[in-house]
Amino acid sequence: MRRLLFLAFLLIGFLTQAQYGTNCEIRQFKLNAFNPGIEYEMALGVNSTLDIRVAYQVALEPASSQPLEDFDFFPAITVQNRYYHNLNSRERRRRSIYGNSGNYIAPSAAIFSPGDRVVEGQLVDGIHGYGGLVYGIQRSFDSGFSFSIDAGAGYYVGPFKGTIQPVVNLSIGWIISEKRWCVGL
After folding, report:
1. In this structure, which of 58, 59, 88, 142 has its CB flanked by the most CB atoms within 10 Å?
2. Signal peptide location in the record (predicted)?
């Protein structure tokens, strides 16, 4: 009877680990070096997070006639609802999922506040932004070093004619604070 009870507790322990061991971090703060700023990522569900980035980031100049060739640094707020689709398979292959190391798909929205500027001889003022869909990867290491890159397309709006343009986000920095969700890790 004791052996049966021990096996039942052992099985419950394995099932509990299997259910909760591959979830996302509850929350983590990161400092970004490439796009200077701060990023906060919080768990929304089993493999889903909300990522908010406030940074001075490289962006297209959508008011330009050649926006793909005209880049600048703008103050920005970027929000993504990331769904990590491969955390379970990474863990099965004994790959790290620390810091939400995985591949994701995410609706993404950003607001840029560049202020008044002259683009092709015309004064452009006001904020602009985009909403779109991106696919990306994020990797974090025990040292705290973290990077993520995602790419997709977004519809840009602002004080110009709205257009669909590419979206690329790059974040390189360090995790400065995290709250682990993964049981036993």
Report:
1. 59
2. 1-20
